[in-house]
Design brief:
7-stranded mixed beta sheet; two-stranded antiparallel sheet; binds zinc ion; 9 strands; alpha/beta; 31% helix; globular; Aminopeptidase
Length: 269
């Protein structure tokens, strides 16, 4: 199994989908608990949700392996993204409900973490970097949209219920105001509940690659899963895509990506 799928497009926008992968290497799978093997913390169906992006000419990169192998949206040194908040590690050992992922809860060795970085983390990031450079060279501008989803309620990370659409721009530092405004104005004016740079301000990918000075602009959209799927009442429920909800949300996502492409084409250098 390839580490990731990559489709190169013709437009100056790369969509990154780091957490919808469901593959596990067999030597890892056998060490996980039965619950962990159902991959409850997956960004379910985010690749399916953004399937339209390729038809718009966007480039798309999507990780095939589960975030339980290595979290592509964390820095390789494991530094916290949100200091003071509970968060899962670069190579997680607990799930979002704080349950252990491994049958034998011993810490992962530095060797194992390092090997996962080399095999799974680095190639994904090298591909993002190369594609953004290519877009910049070809178009004079490059945009990155980091696509995520999460259960609507995760007490470990936030109180209550998350707004449906959580746009993150690292407090306005990962992209120019035009892109932030383009995305946010559409989200804010939609029927969905939303927040800009709230609990989720953009993870490592957004912060690492967004460089507005160079005309490289990045943003993250964290979508509460009730906006496009049936959220289970108990952990054993099988995740289910909701076509009706998804179709409505896809129309909005399409509008957002389109407005970023329009903005980018006006800002070629
Ligand atoms: Zn995610």
């Amino acid at each position: 199994m390839a580490i990731f799928l990559f489709e190169q497009g013709s437009a100056p926008l790369l969509v990154s989908i780091p957490h919808s992968g469901t593959e596990l290497p067999s030597d890892l799978s056998s060490r996980l608990t039965n619950t962990a093997r159902t991959l409850p913390d997956t960004d379910w169906f985010v690749d399916r949700l953004y399937a339209f992006a390729e038809t718009m000419g966007c480039s798309v990169i999507k990780a095939n392996y589960s975030r339980y192998v290595v979290d592509l949206n964390r820095p390789p040194d494991g530094a916290p993204l949100y200091p003071g908040r509970s968060e899962t590690e670069l190579c997680p050992t607990t799930d979002f409900s704080n349950a252990p992922l491994y049958r034998n809860a011993t810490a992962l060795s530095q060797e194992e973490v390092g090997a996962r970085i080399d095999r799974y983390w680095r190639p994904y990031h090298e591909a993002i970097e190369a594609e953004l450079e290519r877009l910049l060279e070809q178009h004079g501008v490059a945009c990155l949209w980091d696509a995520h989803s999460i259960p609507s309620a995760v007490p470990r990370f936030f109180d209550g219920v998350l707004p449906e659409l959580n746009l993150g721009t690292a407090d306005g530092t990962s992209c120019a105001p035009w892109m932030r405004n383009a995305a946010w104005s559409i989200i804010r004016d939609s029927r969905y509940s939303s927040v800009l740079d709230g609990r989720f301000k953009g993870g490592y990918i957004t912060r690492r690659y967004g460089d507005p000075q160079r005309n490289v602009h990045a943003a993250q959209l964290e979508i509460a899963q009730r906006a496009y799927m049936r959220e289970g009442d108990c952990e054993s429920d099988v995740p289910e895509f909701d076509d009706r909800k998804a179709t409505e949300l896809q129309a909005l996502l399409q509008k957002i990506l389109k407005s970023m492409l329009d903005g980018a084409s006006a800002r070629r250098r």
